[in-house]
Structure formats: C-alpha cells, structure tokens
Write a structure and sequence with these properties.
The complex is a heterodimer.
Chain A lengths: L4 E5 L7 H10 L5 E4 L2 E4 L12 H5 L4 E5 L3
Antiparallel strand pairs in A: 1-4, 2-3
Chain B lengths: L4 H10 L7 E4 L2 H11 L3 E5 L6 H4 L2 E4 L2 H12 L11 E5 L3 E12 L4 E7 L6 H7 L4 E6 L7 H9 L5 H20 L2 E12 L4 E3 L2 E5 L8 H7 L14 H11 L5 E7 L4 E6 L3 H11 L6 E6 L4 H12 L6 E6 L7 H14 L4 H4 E5 L5 H10 L11 H15 L1
Parallel strand pairs in B: 12-14, 14-15
Antiparallel strand pairs in B: 1-4, 2-3, 2-4, 5-6, 5-8, 6-7, 8-9, 8-10, 11-13
Helix pairs in contact in B: 2-4, 6-7, 9-11, 10-15, 11-12, 12-14
The chains are: A alpha+beta, B alpha+beta.
Chain lengths: ~70, ~400
C-alpha cells in the first residue's frame, strides 16, 4: 500500500492509447502499466516515485502526482 | 579479502621475495611426503584465517615425516577461533639469527601508504610500538607515483640497519610495497622476516589482505591461487543477519543499502556518505552507544531497498532503536531514504516516531524528506547539527526511551 504518493489519472487520458503508452514508457520507476489500452498505476511502485514530472510533462493536465505527506 | 599464509607466500614468491621451501597439504599423508621432500626438520602450520595460531596449538615442529603426519592430523582437526583449517603448510625449519617485521598498509590520517618496519620481528608489532617505539620506523609514500627502492631503504635504515642486511631487506620491503600497490592490498605484512645463521634473509610468515572491491581487477591472481569468485574471505563467516542484508542489497541495483556487519549492541545504524558511515559508527561509540550493526547506505537506494534494510535491522533481537545518519549528501535523496526508513519501520510493526532515535541526513531534497519525517513524528535534525552531536542525540534518545 502506497504511503507517500498517489497518482491520479484523468479519465480523458484513457481515450488516447498512444498517450497512455507514452506515459508508461517515460516513468523511470515503472509506476504505470498499460492494460487493455488503459493506463493503470502499479501500486507496489507508487512510493518509488522520484517526482521527476516526466509523466506530467508527457500528458499535461492529465496526470496528477499527489504527495500524501504534504 | 584475506589470504591464507600459503597463498600470501605464493604472492610473495611471484614478487621475487625469498622464502623457505614449503608445501601446502590437505592430509597427513601429504604432510609426510612434503616433510620427506623438504628433507630435514619442518614446521607444520595450520592454514586458517586467524591469528594466534602458535598459542592455539596450530604450529608444531617435526623432525621426521612420521612426526609431521602426526602433527598434521592433530592440526587439521583443530579449530582456531571457531575456524577449521583448510590445510597445513609444511615448511623447512630454519635456524634464525635475527627477526624483522615489515608491513605496508594505509595510514588513514596521513592519507598515504606507509611502510612499517621493525628490527624486532616475530612478536606482536603493537607491543613493540608501545614498549620499544625506537625499534619501529614509519615511512609514508605516495601510491600515485612509481615506487622507488629508495623509500624502502629509508624504512629499513630508519631502525639502524646497515650493510648487507640493509641491501637484502630493502629488496624484500620494496617487493612487498610493489605487491601492495599492484595488487590493491589493504595490508601486506611479513612477520617475521628471518635472518638465517648463514646470513641470508627470507620471509618466514606472511599476511595479505586485498581490498574486496578490487578483487575483480585481480582475477588472474585469484584464479592462479584457486580462490573462487564467490569467496569473500572475511575475518569470520557471515552471520545470517549479514547474509540477509547482502540479499537486500543485491536484489535491487539501485544504490547501496547493505555491506552490513553485525555487532551485539542495541542501536541499529543506517549510516553512510563517503566515509560518513565510519565516522558515525565511531561517533556513536564515543558517545557511549552500542551499535547493533555497521552498514552503508548511499548512491540513491530505492525506497523499497531502504525499507527492506530498515525492516531487517528492526527485526534483530536486541535492537531497541535505529539511527539514520549521513554526512551532507548530494548523490542520495533525503526524501527517498526518509520514505524507506519510515515505511520499513511501519511494515516491521513499529511506530517510526518511537523506533527512529534520530534522522540526520541533510542534502538533496531535504525539504521533502523533512516533510515526511514531520508527518510521522520522527525526530530529525539538519546540517546545523554535527554528525557527532547527532550520534550523541541518538544514544541519549535510545537510553531515554529504552
């Protein structure tokens, strides 16, 4: 269970399989995976998030990284 | 990585250092054959990675092959410091007129290599240093420049050796220093160097310790000596705690969170940063603390790696609290380590606010790290608190709440 990081995915992103794939590819710590053309988070990896913002840059406005400790 | 005496002597032989005739044997029969081949009185020496062999009965003298076999049988069955010998060294016994000591090692304070030489060999060099300091020379030299025999000569002459002995000993000490430099040793020691009654000078016993991290650079030598790539050759076999920590470290290539050594104290340590781990370990002891372990963390380990190490340390019997301390870090993120240790405590069933005696890692992403610690009530300090002071606080906190 992730304790420090939550990632919210805008439902609109799921309409774009290519963007979903791109977001999964840019994450250096494998927080995302694509299942049936839908972007999902990998629960076990969420706390490994390095706050690099590559996902939010790849999908502007469609990914939110929430610091649960703030 | 430590070498047995017989291996150390093979290394010295390759460097051209004169040695007595000897044979490594694994059975009493081999020892008898070796004694026959040597052809005279022999000494049978336990091959074990421990000092104190003579006192423990691991060194015996024999005048015949039969006696050599008998002694070998006894020595092969004799544990020394809980270690069983891998064999015995059957070596010609020589009449010694004078014993010397030579070692090359690192002087951490001088940040240079140093030759330690004494004309009182064969006994504990620390005892000589204490009782007869005038019989020891210490000669520092740069490891980044070509080694000159002149440095070795100065080391030997430093205790008043002259003439032929000076020349012969210079060759041995220079050879030892070159082995030290070329083979990345942390210690290359010959004790004693014996001057025989015929005037010749040979190395009678040797101890070599190679920097473990450099072992991969010397696979040729290790292969020649028959040392397997999996052999660690530490001072003692690893404990289960240490083996488990090694598994934690090797399971994830991100950063370092391991190299753990177990002690019997009550304060678990998660420490590191470019020599900071050694400094902090000493600081804890200087403050009256009892470390449960030494370890190294750094190079940006993953959250899960730091968490697994934390869980492992928290689970050790006798560990009351843990201290998470580093020097100012640039290559390790404070927030990632903070997440790891907090998560590890919680997954081990402890409240991080109670279990962590102090968190002192200033550096990259410290604001994020401190926010995490604040949320979980973990006591933390920034770089305005020295490592010594943080160690003292950890010890006090452990005593107070234990």
């Amino acid at each position: 269970m992730a304790m420090f990081i939550r990632v919210d995915i805008d439902p609109a992103l799921q309409q774009d399989p290519a963007l979903a794939k791109r977001v999964a590819e840019v994450c250096p710590v494998d927080i995302f995976k694509v299942v049936d053309a839908r972007l999902e988070t990998v629960e076990a990896n969420l706390d490994e998030c390095t706050l690099c913002d590559l996902c939010t840059i790849a999908a502007p406005g469609k990914i939110s990284v929430v610091k649960l400790y703030r | 990585m430590r070498f047995y005496e017989f291996e150390s002597k093979q290394i010295l032989a390759k460097a051209g250092i004169p040695l007595p005739k000897s044979h490594f044997c694994k059975t009493p029969d081999q020892a008898a054959a070796a004694a026959f081949e040597v052809g005279g009185p022999v000494v049978i020496k336990s091959q074990v990675l421990s000092g104190g062999r003579m006192k423990a009965g691991g060194v015996k003298f024999a005048d015949s092959p039969g006696e050599a076999a008998e002694h070998a049988r006894a020595i092969l069955a004799l544990p020394i410091s809980n270690l069983m010998p891998v064999g015995v060294l059957v070596e010609e016994k020589r009449a010694i007129a004078q014993e010397y000591y030579a070692a090359v090692t690192w002087d951490g304070r001088a940040k240079k290599a140093v030759i330690i030489f004494s004309d009182m060999g064969g006994i504990d060099i620390e005892e000589v240093a204490e009782k007869h300091p005038e019989h020891i020379s210490r000669t520092h030299f740069s490891a980044s420049r070509p080694f000159s025999d002149y440095i070795a000569k100065n080391a030997v002459a430093g205790v008043g050796v002259t003439g032929n002995d000076l020349n012969a000993l210079t060759r041995i000490v220079a050879g030892l220093a070159r082995v030290f430099l070329e083979r990345d040793m942390t210690l290359a020691e010959i004790n004693p160097i014996g001057k025989l009654e015929d005037g010749s000078i040979i190395a009678l016993d040797a101890h070599m310790d190679m920097e473990s991290e450099a072992a991969r650079q010397h696979l040729d030598l290790l292969k020649e000596l028959g040392v397997g790539p999996e052999e660690k050759r530490q001072a003692r076999p690893p404990t289960q705690f240490e083996i488990d920590a090694e598994r934690v470290d090797s399971a994830d290539t991100r950063g370092v969170a391991g190299n753990l050594t177990e002690f019997d104290g009550n304060l678990g340590l998660i420490i590191g940063a470019g020599g900071g781990s050694l400094t902090l370990f000493d600081a804890v002891r200087a403050a009256g603390g009892k470390p449960a372990n030494y370890c190294e963390i750094g190079g940006n380990p993953s959250v899960s790696k730091a968490a697994n190490l934390t869980k492992l340390i928290c689970a050790q019997p006798g560990v009351e609290k843990i201290a998470v301390m580093m020097n100012v870090v640039s290559n390790t993120r404070v927030d990632i380590v903070a997440r790891g240790v907090v998560k590890g405590c919680i997954e081990a069933g402890f409240d991080p606010a109670e279990k962590i005696a102090i968190f002192r890692i200033p550096g990259s992403w410290e604001d994020e790290g401190f926010a995490i610690l604040k949320k979980y009530g973990v006591p933390y300090v920034d770089r305005s608190v020295s490592m010594d002071e943080a160690a003292r606080m950890a010890v006090e906190n452990t005593k107070k709440k234990a």
